[in-house]
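Write out the 3D structure for:
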Amino acid sequence: MNKKANVKREAYAKKQEEKGKKVVGWIFGGLIVLAVIYLIWTFSMMA
């Protein structure tokens, strides 16, 4: 019984880690997109 719970816990931890990496990727991607939009806006204000 204990081994079964251990296996489930490890599988859950692995799934959570993958979801966490995906969320971090989306956050960094969003920040990069916002930075590019800000650069375009800044250069258009200077012109």
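The helical segments are 2-46.
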